[in-house]
Amino acid sequence: MNKDNPLLPQVATVLDITSETPDIKTLRVAGKDGLPFEFMPGQCAMLSIPPIGEAIFSITSSPTCRECLEFSIKEVGTVSSALHDLPPGAHIGIRGPYGNGFPVDDMKGKDLLFIGGGIGLAPLRSLIGYCFSNRDQFGHIDIVYGARSPADLIRKSEIKETWPAEPDTSVYLTVDAENPDWKENVGFVPAYVSELGFKPENKIAITCGPPIMIKFVLQALDKLGFKPEQVITTLEMRMKCGVGKCGRCNLGPVYVCKDGPVFSLAQLNELPAEY
Amino acid sequence: MKKMIGLDKLPALWEQLSAEGPLYLPIEERGVVCFKPWYEGAVVRLDALNGVVPPKDIFLPREETYMRYQGGSQTLEIEAVSPGPDDKATLFGVHPCDLKAVEMLDRVYIDQEPGDSLYRRRRENATVVALACSSPDPFCFCNLFEVDPADAPGADIMAYLSEQSLYLETRTEKGETMLAKAESLISDAKDEPERPREVKTTDFGLYLEGLSDNLKERFDDPAWDNLYKSCLSCGVCTYVCPTCYCFDVEDFGHEGAGERFRCWDSCMFGHFTQMAGGHNPRPDRKERVRQRFLHKLQYYPQTYGEIACVGCGRCLRSCPVNLDIVQAVKALGGEAVEQR
Ligand SMILES: Cc1cc2nc3c(=O)[nH]c(=O)nc-3n(C[C@H](O)[C@H](O)[C@H](O)COP(=O)(O)OP(=O)(O)OC[C@H]3O[C@@H](n4cnc5c(N)ncnc54)[C@H](O)[C@@H]3O)c2cc1C
Ligand code: SF4
Ligand code: SF4
Ligand code: FES
Known about the structure:
The complex is a heterodimer. Chain A is globular and about 50 Å long. Chain A is of the alpha/beta class. In chain A, helix 4 (156-162) links the parallel strand 8 (141-147) and strand 9 (169-175). Chain A has a seven-stranded mixed sheet, with helices on both faces. Chain A contains seven helices and 15 strands. Chain B is 27% helix and 20% strand. Chain B is α+β, with helices and mostly antiparallel strands. In chain B, strand 5 (63-70) and strand 6 form a beta hairpin. In chain B, strands 1, 2, 3, 4, 7, 8, 9, 10 and 11 form a nine-stranded mixed sheet that branches. Chain B has two domains: 2-57 and 72-188, no CATH class; 211-331, no CATH class. Chain B is built from ten helices and 13 strands. The chains are: A alpha/beta, B alpha+beta. One iron/sulfur cluster (SF4) is lined by residues 231-237, 268, 319-321, 323 of chain B.
């Protein structure tokens, strides 16, 4: 973060852009000498293309990747579609990191259950990569990931090949509806989580996805016996500053950009449900 | 030692001070008094009540460019724009309520990490001459917030107006430096200046003790279902409130060159929290009115220990449908029933 003015971006270069799904692309972004800044999994950055504007995205690469930052971006409006259209080598503005990140220290020695939906895998992937790079610090890793259709899953080679091959790791994939090319589970993510019947003992569940998925995942985890302290999620709000000043991302006295976006369910239960 | 200056010598003082940097005074233009940079012939109204807009824009401008860019997709250059160290402003004639409000903004923009250097530089460079307020109007209720209309603890110089003179009491080194520059116009106050008598502001019968804590349980209170109904979403309440500070960030320019600026925004507007896919966490006026009042009465005090209102009365004077903070406090159980 720029020490003098936290709103001031630095110039970074988009190394390359890969298509993930019909509306999601992954950008690899480097500063002058590698990483534009240090960060922890779960933190975000503001990307900008002047004069089009700025938007905030989760850093989806692990901090152990020293070459560049990665962002998986869904096309929803002006900045996101302009980012999609950039040629490799293009300059953009970047500032960050923003937010608290995942409570990595509290997770050490525990089994981890990741539950992602659609683009919601983006922030989880940073932590998943971090865990794989520090494998002995964490217990068993379960990853449940789903999307509308097989084409809408992101990071296809990682979720299908790389991750299942990692030690002590299970990956469960699901899509919403039957599809001729699909051999794995069919059904919504929350239902699949219930069906898999994860045990809460010594486990932390981390979930991110569309609001409706999160809502039902939380219910499913509750039924499985997970306590609110064992459930972690990341929130999305409209953001402009990223540093708790512009006033648009608060839940009560808490600013999602600065005090979040990562919250335990126990913390969220204490805040107005205005998200 | 207290100093004094004859009212007839004030224009000479303005001229001298404005040579040092921008000098903001309550200036009347077309019947409206606001803090503006002094110019020759300006109608300065030290006797006027609080201006329509508070002087917060001197530290947090309505629009402020903080970045310029040049070049395109392979040649982008970004340059910071910030107030220079020489940009030393003087605020002359700020009332104690408005100065207390600036101190509330200081906590957000200076004390809370990461600090905002644009705000901080303006604030640290500025010299503030506060003016005792002797004639509050019926909407003023700063007494409720422990503001003494006759004294502003945070001022560099505290000034009192009498019929023929302005008395100046220096409080800080900055204040002394300022007065030293105008030595020829200023004399020692022979007698103790006549401090304004105790100034009483309107008592709306509000009782704030415990209100912030009680509100934690009242997020879903039925009172919100009625309170918001008259709101027009015009946003005036937030623009005129000296403790409101939300902003927007936008770009202006074309592909080769331009700037990025921030500008005042308002939580009373629907687009403020509008998200992709149509979801809006504060979709209607109810949620937005609740946000504005809870920010002042619960969220800010939870973080900083004090209600974010100074009783300046501006939202009472300006809201076209009288949906002001006094109405809100009353609707939310802050009426001093037992005292009446
Ligand atoms: C902490 C955080 C992490 C995020 N991580 C990712 C990510 O990894 N990948 C990803 O694709 N998206 C992510 N988002 C969402 C992303 O910020 C928005 O999709 C983006 O800002 C839209 O900008 P735009 O200019 O393309 O859209 P605009 O043209 O500005 O707007 C299109 C629509 O999106 C709304 N919008 C604007 N900003 C946001 C916002 N911050 N959140 C939601 N809606 C918004 C607008 O009001 C409008 O309705 C994240 C958001 C947050 C808050
Ligand atoms: S409360 Fe009053 S001043 Fe504020 S937006 Fe509503 S109508 Fe306008
Ligand atoms: S809420 Fe109203 S009375 Fe209180 S400081 Fe703001 S404008 Fe003044
Ligand atoms: S994005 Fe500005 S306060 Fe959170």
